Predict the structure.
Amino acid sequence: GFYASATTTVSKIELVETVPSGFSVPSKLETAPLYFACTRPNSFAFAIDDGDPALAQQVLQAVNAANIKVTFFTVGAPLLDFGNNLTNVYKEMLGRGHQIAYHSFTHPPMEGLPDNAAIDSELTQDIDAVQKTLNVRSKPPIPPTTHPLGFPAHINTGKYFRPPFGTEGARIRQRLAAVIPGSKFINWSVDVEDYLWALSTTPEKQLDAFKRDLAKGGNLVVMHYLYPTTVQYLAQFIALAKATGKKLMRVDQCMEDPEAPPL
């Protein structure tokens, strides 16, 4: 039934076998492809989201000790706050060969934003912040073979995006494709559930969650370096992933991106 006093308009929808003469069907808008797992056979990628600058060195120590490369999805607004040292943290990550990718400007649930303009603003401001502070660009790539900050040229391009909270839908994927042609929308198949367990009395459940998804064949991680317990378990996460026999690499490498650095 109807429970509001506002005027309700009822439209008739008719299913037809053919498109009527003189009626044009709108073209489907291009959308960024959505990935939950790596496409390269026998690959595994740690994709690490936003974190606490005070814990960043511990993260770098863990991945360096394991001799692997990972991907960091970064929120743009904190990069512009030069009091938190995040820009220097990510410059060091870039210098060590890790990938920097996009994660919105202020970390809202983007599919729930009111309109396309709000979605575009989150994307473009993140892109601008990453370009301004780290010189990683979405388009076009810098022609020279050497990055202005002295890093290899392949880190110039950014076309990978992970949505805050993993929220995805047609609108945000359409806008991502429009703002960054050729972009990829990255979710995950291994969730350490740090948001549930890191600050609880049972932080070891993060290991249980990792093992559970690993056993299901997951090969693309989501985790944050927001919490000390999560960072403390990182070396164990890496060891468990290596024990599968899969090769650990950056997201662009595990997606078989021809512009990614060679393995």
